[in-house]
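ok trying this again, last paste got cut off
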Amino acid sequence: MASILNNDRVVPKLKVNSKKQALLELAKRAASVTGQSERRIFDVLLERERLGTTGVGRGVAIPHGKLPSLSQVYGLFARLERPIDFDSVDERPVDLIYLLLAPEGSGADHLKALARVSRALRDEGLCDKLRGCDSADAICAVLASTATPDAA
């Protein structure tokens, strides 16, 4: 996960009031990192949400999508200042969001990244540590401690 996420891609206290606002804000931040259109990123994320929620439960969401003009997988992480309704599978509000964007033809890489993120964020102890972090450095350190390079 460390290869797709760094301090510049972490928002330790994101202030949003809704799922749509969270996706808009993350699309804006992703646009500055990837060089892609904010609107295109937002549209890809919304398209994916229409297929089914990416609110995976226990306060975690993993919105993701593919863009044809990306050259690599990108990750962005946000800890929300206040939990929001994300239409999660367990109906609990979300306060941890890990956004993944991948190139259109990156089938295996995208799935491996999604599996790693999902596996890591299923760990309640890890999520509790992330909820206690107040800086991008601290969040990156916690996420880096979960690195399992060959587990995908």
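PB: full thing came through this time. The longest helix spans residues 19-34.
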